[in-house]
Amino acid sequence: MKALSSVAILFMVLFLAQCTSDKSGGQQLTPDEEKAYLEKGKAIAESTFAALSGKLATAMEEGGVEGAVQYCNLAAMPLVDSLSKANNATIRRTSQKPRNPLDAPSEWEAEILAGFQQSTAKGEKAMPRLKILDNNKVAFAAPIILQPLCMKCHGTVGTDIAEADYAIIKKLYPKDEAVGYKPGELRGMWSIVFEQ
Ligand code: HEC
């Protein structure tokens, strides 16, 4: 009888341990779910990036940095609104050196950014990935790499960025850290959280 109850207690302990580990982010995605989330994340990041770069290029041609400065802002893009609603997701960009302080990374974002930074610094391609957050939501992260088009606002002040243009940026973003980059470097990442 005594032996039997010890076994029962052991089972209960194991069962409870299993439950706690599930709650603390032990959730696993099936390979099919994983593929679907990755594809959705990539599609959102690619269409947003395409719309953003297109707008930036046209605005730069028409009005230079002064006229284009508002077009590197996701919040100002109606496309982001409709993509968020259609996918029931929160779409944002984050960076280790943010221009807008609101884009500073959270703890999990900083961890993934550091991994992307390591791969890019070694000359490897940083790959999009998923993360299950502590609240069991699924997050998608993908690297944002700088192109020559970006240098006029994120390159070196005085050479890539005209002093007068930087004065305009600094006025809007007094805490700007997002300069001194070269094309091909990691600028930040997409952070897309699916609300499920
Ligand atoms: C005309 C100037 C301009 C150009 C060109 C430009 N950016 Fe930006 N970038 C900005 C401004 C201004 C912000 C801050 C936007 C905000 O308030 O959300 C920003 C913010 C960002 C952010 C969000 C993180 C942060 O620092 O706040 C990323 C990522 C980014 N830019 C990447 C790029 C990439 C990649 C390119 C080239 C395709 C590019 N930018 C070209 C002006 C520019």
* Small ligands present: heme C
Largest sheet: 4 strands, antiparallel
The first-to-last residue Cα distance is 47 Å
Radius of gyration: 22 Å
Order of strands across the widest beta sheet?
1-4-3-2
Could you name the ranges where pLDDT drops below 50 across 5 or more consecutive residues? 9-25
Structural class label = alpha+beta
Total number of helical segments?
6
What is the element layout, followed by pairings?
Layout: H1 2-26, H2 31-68, H3 78-87, E1 89-94, H4 107-121, E2 129-132, E3 138-145, H5 151-154, H6 163-172, E4 186-194
Antiparallel strand pairs: 1-4, 2-3, 3-4
Helix pairs in contact: 2-3
Bound molecules: heme C.
The site of heme C has 24 residues, from helix 2, helix 5 and strand 4.
Outline the structure in words.
By secondary structure, the protein is α+β, with helices and mostly antiparallel strands. It has helices spanning 2-26, 31-68, 78-87, 107-121, 151-154, 163-172, and strands at residues 89-94, 129-132, 138-145, 186-194. The protein has a four-stranded antiparallel sheet with strand order 1-4-3-2, with helices on both faces. The protein starts with a helix and ends with a strand. Mean pLDDT is 88; it is low at 9-25. It binds heme C. Heme C (HEC) is lined by residues 53, 56, 65, 68-69, 72-73, 93, 95, 98-100, 103, 144, 146-147, 149-150, 152-154, 178, 187-188.
Question: Which descriptors would you attach to this protein?
Answer:
four-stranded antiparallel sheet; alpha+beta; 196 residues; 4 strands; binds heme C; 6 helices
Kindly summarize this structure in a few lines.
The protein has a domain at 30-144 and 185-194.
